[in-house]
Recover the amino acids of this structure.
């Protein structure tokens, strides 16, 4: 499996752990930095550095904690983690690599395409009896420079609000059915963006947490009306499940996928924006 394809298997990682240009990042999230670091220090892939998405991969000063960092913030944070212009980055997490997808999102958004997720995450590594390392691995700082991204740019609240009736834009909600309907409320208001299609993110994974074959990802998306020739704006609660879905869709050949990183944390708390529920649209 070639690194440039966006996903690698555990054997590729094991074969390349000693490569000087390979940076392995443990992106597991346990609610806060301290517990996430403790989980990392109890056992991680040898040589992997710890990445905490809420600080290392998010904007420093915002009322919505899920916004991407600025270009300058990304250069500083990624450089501190040891990512340079020539680095081949591998991210992994648990739960189907959910939080590792944030690393993919930030790197590709700022023009670094040499990033892949390790299929199956830490669970696959452990199940295969591969070694774990305890303690901390201090990163070796490098120089990361933002460049032109080869993927579709992100999309914001204002553009979505202006294009709710645009037939070329598919709004893709990848949360749970309970969040989508408003039964589970994680913002001031429950529900979803009017016109959005529901396609929960974890349907792109098999029972073992590995990514499904690309043909299956395409078939599932198209059955829900998510077509590859249209522009797709994908969102969740905080942009992480959206990033995982964008990664999966890009693996499946979709090229017009845009991530709304503010997601429901922003939209659901802005009373000026329309919201839909199972019973219809309300303002």
């Amino acid at each position: 499996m070639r690194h440039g394809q966006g996903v690698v298997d555990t054997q590729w990682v094991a074969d390349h752990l000693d490569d000087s240009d390979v940076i392995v990042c443990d992106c597991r999230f346990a609610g806060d930095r301290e517990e996430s670091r403790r989980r990392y220090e109890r056992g991680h892939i040898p040589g992997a550095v710890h990445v905490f998405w809420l600080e290392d991969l998010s904007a420093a000063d915002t009322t919505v904690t899920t916004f991407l960092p600025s270009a300058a913030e990304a250069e500083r944070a990624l450089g501190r983690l040891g990512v340079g212009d020539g680095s081949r980055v591998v991210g992994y997490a648990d739960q189907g690599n959910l939080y590792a997808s944030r690393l993919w999102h930030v790197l590709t958004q700022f023009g670094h395409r040499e990033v892949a997720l390790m299929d199956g995450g830490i669970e696959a590594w452990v199940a295969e009896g591969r070694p774990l390392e305890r303690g901390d691995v201090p990163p070796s700082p490098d120089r990361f420079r933002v460049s032109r991204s080869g993927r579709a740019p992100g999309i914001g609240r204002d553009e979505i609000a202006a294009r709710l009736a645009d037939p070329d834009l598919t709004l893709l909600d990848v949360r749970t059915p309970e969040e989508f309907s408003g039964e589970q409320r994680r913002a001031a208001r429950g529900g979803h963006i009017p016109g959005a299609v529901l396609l929960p993110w974890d349907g792109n994974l098999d029972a073992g947490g590995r990514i499904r074959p690309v043909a299956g990802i395409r078939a599932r998306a198209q059955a829900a009306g998510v077509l590859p020739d249209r522009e797709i704006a994908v969102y969740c609660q905080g942009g992480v499940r959206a990033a995982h879905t964008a990664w999966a869709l890009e693996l499946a050949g979709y090229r017009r996928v845009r991530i709304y990183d503010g997601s429901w944390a922003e939209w659901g708390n802005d009373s000026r924006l329309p919201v839909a529920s199972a019973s219809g649209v309300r303002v």
